[in-house]
Amino acid sequence: MDETIAALERTLARFDPAHTELRKREGFQYQHPFPGVLEWMPVMEVGRQAVIKLVGYNPANVEGRGLPTILSTISLYDVTTGHLRALCDGTFPTALRTGAASAVASRHLARPDSRVLGLVGCGAQAVTQAHALSRLFPLERLLVHDRHPETARGFARRVDFLGLPVEAVPLERVEREADILCTATSVEVGAGPVISGTHLQPHVHINAVGSDLPGKTELPLDLLRRALVCPDYLPQALVEGECQQLQPGEIGPSLFELARASELGRRHHGRPTVFDSTGIALEDQVVIEVLLTHAQNLGIGRLLQLESLADDPRDPYGFLRTEGVLPEAARTDYRTQVTACES
Amino acid sequence: MDETIAALERTLARFDPAHTELRKREGFQYQHPFPGVLEWMPVMEVGRQAVIKLVGYNPANVEGRGLPTILSTISLYDVTTGHLRALCDGTFPTALRTGAASAVASRHLARPDSRVLGLVGCGAQAVTQAHALSRLFPLERLLVHDRHPETARGFARRVDFLGLPVEAVPLERVEREADILCTATSVEVGAGPVISGTHLQPHVHINAVGSDLPGKTELPLDLLRRALVCPDYLPQALVEGECQQLQPGEIGPSLFELARASELGRRHHGRPTVFDSTGIALEDQVVIEVLLTHAQNLGIGRLLQLESLADDPRDPYGFLRTEGVLPEAARTDYRTQVTACES
Question: How far apart, in whole angstroms, are the C-alpha atoms of residue B177 and residue A156?
């Protein structure tokens, strides 16, 4: 987590659209058999590589099938050849980097002495929110709330590695006492907000993590209007984030701008701040590079010859010919690193 | 190939946008270190699955690195959960389905007694063009041309399995004698056309396969204007295909319309016909279903636990816990079929 936070902060601060082409998320949205989306999130480092995450968001997964709400895979392509260099699980990295993004934003927007973390929504993303923020702030306790009480009750076990007291409390107490508050819910489209916004501490910083679909928002409009709202990536936040509810003139500096010039956030202490986290492809690129480095050093994963190659690149049936063994280069240079969870 | 042609024709004829959401290709385009593109091609069968091909087009691959110009991988997602069901090579399937698409179009547009096939551009795609068309037409000979004479000379060996005479000839002879002509070149953006269009048989049918980028076209405008031009998928062909050169009113029925009502093509015999093949995600879906069925029946590929799953779907660190062995369902239902070329 520490490495991911540091690498993300560095990458955001150095971001240059001339060298990195970032796209907003696109995807399929569906209602049957269950509401969900399947989206692709591409980013390219010009002349080097492209990272594309395919991510499914299916809130019915947890209760119905014991699967995470967010399932995903990340592919890393060499843009000098089109070769798939690596394919990795994206489910764990998504949780990791979403936590790291809130940590980076909170470093610039929250009070450094924040001691009470409030969590509204106690699913998988809340675990990494708490983990990431615990690395930067002197947290003393966690107040948590979920519309499903058993989900809130189970949270303490999931974050036992933090060694912090966790209390499942009514929503109003989370709002009243939190120095930093994270909303990470699967609220239905059109059903928000998930907090009232009326009992908040004046200095509260909110990481609004759940808003990632048109119509899906977690925060009340009047709170957004009186807060400093910082989106991760404005073009996407205007479509899918809390920023859907705002006009462009009502929106503060982005996470990129905060990382480059921290005083943009610090200047606004005294009124609430909001990090509108929709999740961006650049975060996936950062986390997958961190994880792949470790996977390679630890020998995790396997190398597969995935693309159809043959001695004669002009012969699509070459791999079927008796003499069509794989060329030497394919045996060494053009395998795909498949990093599977089981290995 | 026969199965792919039949399945594609069936899928096109039955296509219903209420059941299948087809997207046009999007991607990254780059000039350095070599000109190329990396694109994603998504299609969703509502309530069932999504197929997404990631495809690189890098013409410098062949000479520089002995790799195919087109390298790709295809992923198949279950849209009821977001689970990656299968990951397969897309390089061979792309060639296969591009041939099959020309066969379907030619069945509706070319003379059934076409005996001379002309090929302009003798790379990997030309092999499957010749193969696919040989399955539907009484071909007697192949006349081939490539701007690199050695590529044309090597073509006979690559299609020796067809048992047809292959003659490398000047471009003008291909144009004069072909009943069916396929252009499948890596002509540079803005450098087209690749044929003159002045010596063609009046009944010629042309499968224009190479045009797949803004500015990349293979056929002269005056030929397009006097021909019946049938795109595979109009929204994409207007951006990337030969149809870039035309106004919507100058464009004939699409491949979908031909497959549903063959008389739309037959009515126009006597003037040239053009299939503007840009390559569509639906073709990838068809071919990967054909190939996966065979792979499963033949036991090709392997099952990997790719996504990070644990007993508690709300615990992203569950897989790290000592008790966090994979849940039973993950062991059976949620593995990814990775069909690698080597296996």
Answer: 78
Using a CB-CB cut-off of 8 Å, the residues of chain B touching A158 are 312, 314-315, 317-318
SS3 A212: coil
Q: Which residues of A touch B24 (CB under 8 A)?
A: none
Q: Which two tokens stand for residue A130?
A: 């708490």
ipTM of the complex: 0.91
Instruction: Report the distance separating Cα A237 and Cα A279, nearest Å.
Output: 9
Tens of pLDDT, residue by residue over B266-294, are 766 679 999 999 999 999 999 999 999 99
Instruction: State the nearest Cα–Cα gap between A31 and chain B, in angstroms.
Output: 8
Please tell me which residue of chain B has the smallest CA distance to A90: B307
Nearest to A340 among B56, B73, B306 (CB): B306
Distance, CA of B126 to CA of A273 (rounded, Å): 59
The answer to whether A95 and A156 are in contact (CB under 8 A) is no
Q: What is the rounded CA–CA span in Å between residue B160 and residue A183?
A: 64
Report the alpha-carbon distance of residue A37 to residue A35 in Å, rounded: 7
Tokens of B311: 């007993």
List of domains in chain B: 2-92+283-339 (3.30.1780.10), 111-278 (3.40.50.720)
Bridge-based pairing state of the strands B205-208 and B228-231: unpaired
What are the pLDDT digits (tens) for B127-149?
A: 999 999 999 999 999 999 999 99
Rounded distance between C-alpha atoms, residue B89 and residue B70, angstroms? 11
Within an 8 Å CB–CB cutoff, is residue A76 touching chain B? no
Provide the CA A86 distance to its chain's centre, in angstroms. 20
Q: Cα A169 from chain centroid?
A: 26
Cβ contacts of residue A5 below 8 Å, gap of 6+? A100, A103, A104, A132, A135, A136
Asked whether B130 and B195 are in contact (CB, 8 A), the reply is: no
